[in-house]
Design a protein that fits this description.
Organism: Mumia zhuanghuii
CATH architecture of one domain: 3-Layer(aba) Sandwich
GO molecular function: ATP binding; ATP hydrolysis activity; transmembrane transporter activity
CATH class of one domain: Alpha Beta
Strand order of the largest sheet: 1-10-4-9-8-7
Oligomer: single chain
Protein name: Heme ABC exporter ATP-binding protein CcmA
Strand content: 15-25%
Shape: globular
CATH topology of one domain: Rossmann fold
Radius of gyration: 18 Å
CATH superfamily of one domain: P-loop containing nucleotide triphosphate hydrolases
Keywords: ATP-binding, Cytochrome c-type biogenesis, Nucleotide-binding, Transport
Distance between the termini: 5 Å
Family: Belongs to the ABC transporter superfamily.
Bound molecules: adenosine-5'-triphosphate
C-alpha cells in the first residue's frame, strides 16, 4: 500500500499498509483536476444519483482489493477510475454490474443491483474486457441482433457500424477482425442500444488515434444526453476529455 493522505475516499490496495496507516483507514484520492461531489467517504444518496456505492469491500480469499469504498454517480456525469495494474479497477466495475462484493452495497436507480433483473439489463450497457462474439455471426448480424433485442429500429445497426468506423467489415466474422476492429465492435455492442449507465473498462485500448478521438466525442455526447458513465482508463487524455470525477485506486 502506498500513499494514505486522502480526501475521504476509501480505497485499499492488495499490498500492506505503511507504518502508521491503519489497515482499515481511508485510501485512494481525488484527482486534482476534477473537483467532485460524486465521490465521498459517506455516500450521499440524492434523487439524481443513479449509482450508489456504500462501504464496498471486495477480497479474493484473504487478499483485500478495496474496502470502505463509497461514492455515487449522477446522470450526465462520468466517473473515471484510475490506478496501476492490479489496483482493482476491473473488480470494482464488475461489482457495479452484478458481481457480488465481499460486503457493502451497490444500487442502481435506488434498487440493489441484480444482473438478472430485466430492468437493470435494459438500462445498463457494459464493455468489460475482450467480449466473446458468436463465431458464425457477422459483424452486422451481431449488432442487428442486439439492436432488435433492445427494441431498436433495424437501421440502427448500420448507423452504429458507420459511426464506429467498421462498416467495411460488416460482413466479416469476428475471428477475422484485427484487434482494433474487435475493440470497435465491442464498443458498438454498447452503442447500438440505449442505456442510462455505461460501464467501460479501458475502452481506448487498441484504438488508433482517430478511434480515440471519436470515442471521446461519443462519450461526451452520451453525457449531454443524460447517461452516466463509469470508466476505467489508463489514457489521461480520455480521462481529461470525458471525466467529471476521478477515483484513484492505489497499489
Ligand atoms: N478471479 C480472481 N481471483 C483472484 N484474484 C483476482 C481475481 N481477479 C482479480 N484478482 C486480483 O485482484 C487484483 C485487482 O485486479 P483487477 O483486475 O481488478 O485490477 P485492475 O486495476 O483492473 O488492473 P489492470 O489495470 O491491469 O486492468 C489483482 O491483484 C488481481 O490479481
Amino acid at each position: 500500500m502506498r500513499g494514505s493522505s486522502r480526501q475521504g475516499l476509501s480505497v485499499r490496495s492488495p499490498c500492506h499498509p505503511p507504518p502508521g496507516v491503519s489497515s482499515r483507514g481511508p485510501r485512494g484520492r481525488f484527482g486534482r483536476r476534477w473537483q467532485t461531489d460524486a465521490v465521498s467517504r459517506k455516500s450521499k444518496k440524492t434523487p439524481t444519483s443513479l449509482v450508489s456505492v456504500t462501504d464496498l469491500e471486495h477480497a479474493y480469499g484473504h487478499r483485500v482489493v478495496f474496502d470502505h469504498l463509497s461514492f455515487h454517480v449522477r446522470a450526465g456525469r462520468c466517473l473515471v477510475l484510475r490506478g496501476p495494474n492490479g489496483s482493482g479497477k476491473t473488480t470494482l466495475l464488475r461489482c457495479l454490474v452484478g458481481e457480488r462484493p465481499t460486503s457493502g452495497t451497490v444500487t442502481f436507480d435506488g434498487r440493489r443491483v441484480d444482473e438478472s433483473d430485466p430492468r437493470f439489463r435494459a438500462d445498463v450497457a457494459t464493455v468489460l474486457g475482450d467480449l466473446d462474439f458468436f463465431p458464425d455471426l457477422t459483424v452486422l448480424e451481431h449488432l442487428d441482433l442486439l439492436a432488435r433485442a433492445h427494441g431498436q429500429a433495424p437501421e440502427q445497426a448500420d448507423e452504429v457500424l458507420e459511426a464506429v468506423g467498421i462498416s467495411d467489415v460488416r460482413d466479416q466474422f469476428p475471428g477475422t477482425l484485427s484487434s482494433g476492429q474487435r475493440q470497435r465492435l465491442a464498443l458498438a455492442t454498447a452503442f447500438v442500444r440505449p442505456y442510462r449507465l455505461l460501464v467501460l473498462d479501458e475502452p481506448e485500448q487498441r484504438l488508433d488515434t482517430d478511434g480515440q478521438a471519436w470515442l471521446a466525442q461519443r462519450l461526451a455526447a452520451d453525457k449531454r444526453a443524460g447517461a452516466a458513465i463509469v470508466m476505467a482508463t489508463h489514457d489521461p487524455d480520455l480521462a481529461a476529455a470525458v471525466g467529471d470525477d476521478v477515483l484513484e485506486l492505489g497499489a
